[in-house]
Design brief:
By secondary structure, this protein is an alpha+beta fold. The protein folds into 2 domains: about 350 residues, T-fold (Roll), CATH 3.10.520; about 35 residues. The chain is built from 10 helices and 18 strands. The protein is globular. The N terminus is likely disordered. It binds adenosine monophosphate and magnesium ion. The site of magnesium ion (MG) has 7 residues, from strand 10 and helix 9.
Length: about 425
């Protein structure tokens, strides 16, 4: 019996696959071996007007040799001026090193993160300490919400009995509270208790099934699913009324992680930065060229070429869900991807390949991207207009020979979205 144990090999993340780190299209192409830094570079450094992009790279200030060497035979007074000026310049540049962009990268939640700090005055030591604090904050999120850590708060909750409320930390409470709000607002399309179904269909710790599950196990998994069985008490206790309910925050946790890092950076006085975890991205202030942060929307296919370019302003976030990264084909050749429609208890199977969502915070963008992927544009866009008027979305729908864009009315204007130039 052939089984895929990828999930068992990834003890640290939310996400049950290894070697396939990305589930969303802000990432890089397979050619650039799964490193989002390449995409960030490509998008933020290359300007369509100036295709080579060289003049967009932040200039490296020269600290020495800025004044032309004087020819022999010049009066000695001029030589003294030359040296005074040069020494003055060196002294000044030593006092205030020119700000440069900084890039911090690392691993978290079974994927990678990248953080760009624009025109950062921080030295190497400061950056190292900042990154240690960021890593600690993200490790804390994992200790609270990763189902791949057996002693995390979420794992303890999943093992607990129905009449055994578990005290959870304030950040975890915030995520559960928002998850329940979004579940209610989306009519359960987003459901943080969908874990048993996700696992049954091959995207949880048990790995891939050999064939599509039969009706009986599907009914059994469905019986232990439902956000209405989850209760968060005012004093921060998480409770359930069916013992086997499996909380799964995989659709919202990366977004929360991004918000958490942004909060930390703001608290440290940073005003211009871009934070990205596994493709979910939030931009604050401006990039090193003083422009709004640019983010590439990838084509949801193997090419991973850019479909379009969006600009993030106002400290907003963009997140994407899709079926083209984490999927398999079952014995009938049908594509099975990792987002489950709680109404059918099966992986979503429609023509939508990806949904990108713009929201004021990354947690909301992340959760709604998953919900809208379930709903599709026909149900999703009216719901967005009614319940989330500040949120915008772009659906990429397969047409057979490409993708059709279906967007909420304000998407293009809010992100100054435009088709990607040929790079
Ligand atoms: P994302 O990539 O943000 O769309 O998150 C997908 C992950 O969320 C899956 O791997 C599951 O762990 C979980 N998930 C799948 N379907 C749903 C759903 N309908 N509601 C909430 N979470 C889901
Ligand atoms: Mg999501």
């Amino acid at each position: 019996m052939k089984r895929n144990f990828h999930a068992m090999e990834n003890p640290t993340g939310f996400f049950p696959y290894r070697g396939k780190k990305f589930s969303t299209p802000w990432k890089t192409s397979p050619r650039r071996v799964q490193d989002p830094r390449h995409l960030a570079w490509r998008v933020n450094q290359v300007c369509p007007d100036r295709p080579n992009g060289h003049n967009l790279i932040h200039p490296r200030h020269k600290a020495v040799g800025v004044f032309p060497r004087l020819r022999r035979g010049k009066p000695w007074k001029l030589k003294i001026e030359y040296w005074i000026l040069n020494i003055l310049f060196l002294a000044l540049s030593a006092c205030s090193p020119p700000p440069r962009d900084a890039l911090l990268t690392g691993q978290t939640m079974g994927t990678s993160y990248s953080i760009r700090l624009a025109a950062s005055p921080l030295g190497r030591g400061d950056l190292r300490r900042l990154q240690a604090d960021i890593d600690a904050a993200l490790a804390e999120v994992n200790r609270q919400m990763s189902t791949y850590l057996s002693d995390s708060e979420i794992s303890r909750f999943n093992r607990a009995e129905a009449d055994e409320p578990v005290a959870i930390s304030p950040d975890f409470q915030h995520v559960v509270r928002r998850a329940l709000e979004i579940a209610a607002a989306t009519g359960g399309a987003f459901d943080p208790t969908v874990g048993a179904l996700v696992n049954l269909w091959g995207f949880g710790p048990d790995g891939r099934p050999c064939a599509a599950p039969a009706a009986e196990p599907i009914a059994a998994a469905r019986a232990i699913t439902g956000w209405r069985h989850l209760l968060l008490t005012p004093d921060g206790q998480l409770a359930k009324d069916i013992p086997d309910l499996r909380l799964d925050l995989g659709a919202i946790a990366k977004g929360f992680g991004v918000d958490r890092v942004a909060e930390l950076l703001r608290a440290r006085g940073r005003e211009h930065f871009l934070v990205e975890i596994g493709g979910e991205t939030l931009g604050v202030g401006r990039n090193g060229q003083g422009e709004s942060w640019r983010v590439g929307v990838l084509k949801p296919d193997e090419s991973a070429d850019l479909q379009g370019i969006a600009r993030l302003t106002g400290g907003r976030a963009i997140a994407t869900s899709g079926d083209y990264r984490n999927f398999y084909r079952d014995e009938t050749g049908e594509l099975r991807a990792h987002i489950v429609d709680p109404r059918t208890a099966a992986p979503v199977g429609h023509a939508v390949a990806s949904v990108s969502v713009l929201a004021g915070d990354c947690l909301t963008a992340d959760a709604l991207a998953t919900a809208l992927f379930v709903l599709g544009p026909d149900e999703g866009l009216p719901l967005l207009a009614e319940r989330f008027p500040d949120v915008e979305a772009l659906f990429l729908v397969r047409t057979g020979d490409g993708f059709r864009e279906i967007a909420s009315p304000g998407f293009a204007a809010a992100l100054r979205y435009e088709p990607a130039p040929a790079l």
